[in-house]
Amino acid sequence: MPVTGGGLGDEEPGKKYDPLRHEGEDLIGQRQFQLALPIWEQIEKLRPMDILPHKRLAALYKLCNEPEKSAGELAILAAVELQNNSYAKATARAYRDVGNMNESLRWARRAVYTNLYDADAHRLLADVDERMGDSAGVAREQRVIGELAHWKQMQDAAATQP
Predict the structure, then answer these.
(1) pTM of the predicted model as reported, rounded to 2 decimal places
(2) For the chain, which residues make up each domain, given as ranges?
(3) Among 23, 22, 25, 79, which Cα is nearest to 49's?
(4) Domain 84-162 falls in which CATH fold?
């Protein structure tokens, strides 16, 4: 039996996916976020390895005032994104905003390690360090932010030279 729709040898998930996805997208388009949420939760169960349901659920949980669940979906996305730190930053912010500072710190560090030249990631890490009372961490990140600003100025100046 062929593997379809993310189910192992089960053709049913493939048959259910397209109609559910269309219904879920339509409800989002109609701004019926509460109604779209259970549809996308079903889709996630059908295709847990598919990134689209996690993206939709992260946004829907945020819109439906379930920030802890949104943070969890963002963490799933961040865990599989190895080259871009945008999900790691979003996850750090989401956990920070719900008061889970240990998870926020974990993902803020991941964002920095993924892109060492991202000043926004360093500012986020400095913010988390400050909220956690880590003055040495704040000082370190402030130094890095200053160095990155200087480095960017040098790059910009070199780019304008004939």
Answers:
(1) 0.81
(2) 1-65, 84-162
(3) 79
(4) 1.25.40
